[in-house]
Amino acid sequence: MTTTEPFPAVAAPHPARPIRTFHPRRGRMSGRQTAALEQLWPAYGLRVADAAPFDPVGLFGRRAPLVLEIGSGMGDTTVEMAAVDPDRDYLAVEVHTPGIANLLDLVHRRGLGNVRIAEGDALDLVGLLPPDSLDAVHVFFPDPWPKLRHHKRRLIQPAHVALLRSRLAVGGTLHCATDWAEYAESMRVTLDGDPGLVNPHGGYAPRPAHRPVTRFERRALAAGRPIADLLYRKV
């Protein structure tokens, strides 16, 4: 594995879904992150392109409820939630190499055995999961793609939500959060329109105590952008 290109180039889009919901970024990495990627990837990482067939028991070494974290960023939220929730396994999916490396380092430093990191398109990974196999899906601060012509790239749209919901077990939760007001309303309308999801709060949810406050969230609040949480349950 090299320090400059630890993963092969992102594969060409699947013909059935040519529009990606993310923009791949490499970015610069610190020496600590580079070392973490080189040394810890074999123990904690997998590439989405190599994940078929997906075997969570083989991946985590046990059978436990599985949480899918889409877009884990630098990994702070994933690590904090997994650390206080040892009875569930957390699978974080990310495309940003420095974020993957940082999460690997955090997981190792905290000694967490219930976290694994996947590199690649989360929707491709979801397509490999068996129906009803997830206890929760977390979508925290996805790219809002604010320009109208880019709205088609948004993660939370009807077809994607239907796919995510199909992988949730009955009673499982889909938890979204955003600091972009227009996207929050679009999310709410989309999630309300899915026939297999219910909103126990009837609108935006009170901020859940179990979702850690990240640096990104603090910056958003300082800039005057309120945070919207949306919690839905599969029925």
TrEMBL record:
Matching InterPro entries: SAM-dependent_MTases_sf (IPR029063), tRNA_(Gua-N-7)_MeTrfase_Trmb (IPR003358), tRNA_methyltr_TrmB_bact (IPR055361)
Enzyme Commission code: 2.1.1.33
CDD domains listed in its UniProt record: AdoMet_MTases (cd02440)
Pfam families: Methyltransf_4
Catalytic reaction list: guanosine(46) in tRNA + S-adenosyl-L-methionine = N(7)-methylguanosine(46) in tRNA + S-adenosyl-L-homocysteine
Gene Ontology molecular function terms on file: tRNA (guanine(46)-N7)-methyltransferase activity
Keyword Calcium in annotation: no
Uppermost EC category: transferase
Residues given in the record as S-adenosyl-L-methionine binding sites: 69, 94, 121, 143
Superkingdom of source: Bacteria
Annotated SUPFAM superfamilies: S-adenosyl-L-methionine-dependent methyltransferases (SSF53335)
Keyword S-adenosyl-L-methionine: yes
One GO CC term, this protein: tRNA methyltransferase complex
Pathway assigned in UniProt: tRNA modification; N(7)-methylguanine-tRNA biosynthesis
Keywords, alphabetical: Methyltransferase, S-adenosyl-L-methionine, Transferase, tRNA processing
Amino acids binding substrate: 147, 179, 214-217
Function: Catalyzes the formation of N(7)-methylguanine at position 46 (m7G46) in tRNA.
Family in the record: Belongs to the class I-like SAM-binding methyltransferase superfamily. TrmB family.
NCBIfam families hit by this protein: tRNA (guanosine(46)-N7)-methyltransferase TrmB
The name this protein goes by in its record: tRNA (guanine-N(7)-)-methyltransferase
